[in-house]
């Protein structure tokens, strides 16, 4: 930041709030006073872990503050675009390692004094692949000269438009986090369509189910608590298709896929997902295997 010879680009990758949640002051979030989201079972273990999770987010907030303070001290804050985003949803069941909105929808905040609108929200849909062409355009390059998967959303940052993409997409294959369980999704800003390509299989994710006391508490309670049983079943057994009015049902608890009223919407999104998979040369389930994972890793296609 202090080098005045050229513009700077700085990417800061914070590790919080990644499990184990050990940073921050959990006493600021008393476990018994928390309001849990509807996609999480209300057990004491869940409450205590959620308290630790919120504390670590608060700790991360202080780290962001340190970075912004350093930017201010450099004298370049008024001439610097700051983008804050995150990786995926939390480790709690039904979030990370899924294609539900709570697994894929992440924060994206822009601050650019005098250029970005202040305290405004936008409905523009952006994907991570849009970041690189945006940075290229910011640096004075022409993203159209390159074969990027994404496209610059600089006009969104400047507040010139509230439209960027018609659809955003997501995938999950669960390898090597557990047995093969390929999932694909498409979202249009209102409705999310999810396709589970192996719905006859039980979903198993080793980090959630093998090493977390809150998951064990869910299973223990599920034998005599219907609402907890339904959450366990929701996580482990998925239908072939799921459709949610995410704009009105943000935790996607009400599957509309079998409701005739929404058949047209489901068919439209299903067709759009087919076209995207074809465009990406995605054959679906055959690519989501341990053998395919190892082959791609050996070819440095993944890390």
Description:
This protein has 303 residues and is of the alpha+beta class. It has 2 domains: 26-157, 3-Layer(aba) Sandwich (Alkaline Phosphatase, subunit A), CATH 3.40.720.10; 168-203 and 238-298, Arylsulfatase, C-terminal domain (2-Layer Sandwich). It contains 9 helices and 6 strands; from the N terminus they run H-E-H-E-H-H-E-E-E-H-H-H-E-H-H. Strands 3-4-5-6 form a 4-stranded antiparallel β-sheet, with helices on one face. Strand 4 (183-187) and strand 5 (192-196) form a beta hairpin. Helix 1 packs antiparallel against helix 6. The protein is globular and about 65 Å long. The mean pLDDT is 94.
Q: Can you tell me the CATH superfamily of the largest domain?
A: Alkaline Phosphatase, subunit A
Mean pLDDT: 94
The gyration radius over C-alpha positions equals 21 Å
How much helical structure, as a percent, in the residues?
A: 25-40%
Structural class: alpha+beta
The CATH class name of the largest domain reads Alpha Beta
How would you sum up the major sheet?
Answer: 4 strands, antiparallel
CATH architecture of the largest domain: 3-Layer(aba) Sandwich
- Strand % is 5-15%
CATH topology of the largest domain: Alkaline Phosphatase, subunit A
Biggest sheet, strands in spatial order?
3-4-5-6
* End-to-end gap: 30 Å
User: How many strands appear in the DSSP assignment?
Assistant: 6
The low-confidence runs, each spanning 5 or more residues with pLDDT under 50, are none
Descriptors for this entry?
Alkaline Phosphatase, subunit A, Arylsulfatase, C-terminal domain, Alkaline_phosphatase_core_sf, hydrolase, choline-sulfatase activity, 32% helix, 6 strands, two-stranded antiparallel sheet, Sulfatase_N, four-stranded antiparallel sheet
């Amino acid at each position: 930041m202090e080098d005045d010879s050229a513009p700077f680009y700085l990417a800061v990758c914070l590790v919080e709030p990644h499990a184990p949640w050990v940073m921050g002051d959990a006493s600021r979030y008393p476990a018994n006073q928390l309001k849990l989201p509807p996609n999480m079972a209300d057990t004491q273990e869940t409450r205590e872990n959620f308290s630790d999770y919120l504390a670590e987010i608060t700790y991360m907030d202080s780290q962001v503050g340190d970075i912004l303070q350093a930017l201010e001290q450099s004298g370049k804050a008024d001439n610097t675009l700051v983008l804050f985003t995150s990786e995926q949803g939390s480790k709690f069941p039904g979030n990370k390692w899924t294609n539900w909105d709570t697994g894929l929808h992440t924060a994206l905040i822009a601050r650019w004094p005098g250029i970005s609108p202040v305290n405004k929200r936008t409905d523009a849909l952006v994907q991570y692949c849009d970041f690189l062409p945006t940075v290229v355009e910011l640096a004075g390059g022409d993203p159209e000269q390159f074969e990027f998967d994404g496209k610059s959303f600089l006009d969104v940052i400047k507040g010139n438009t509230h439209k960027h993409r018609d659809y955003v997409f997501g995938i999950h294959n669960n390898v090597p986090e557990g047995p093969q369980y390929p999932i694909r999704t498409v979202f249009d800003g209102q409705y999310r369509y999810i396709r589970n390509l192996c719905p006859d299989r039980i979903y198993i994710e080793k980090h959630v189910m093998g090493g977390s006391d809150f998951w064990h508490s869910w299973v223990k309670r599920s034998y005599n608590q219907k609402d907890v049983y339904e959450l366990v079943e929701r996580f482990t057994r998925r239908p072939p298709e799921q459709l949610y009015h995410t704009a009105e049902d943000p935790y996607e608890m009400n599957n509309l896929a079998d409701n005739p009223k929404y058949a047209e919407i489901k068919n439209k999104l299903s067709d759009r997902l087919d076209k995207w998979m074809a465009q990406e040369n995605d054959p679906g389930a055959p690519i989501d295997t341990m053998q395919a994972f190892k082959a791609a890793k050996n070819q440095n296609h993944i890390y």
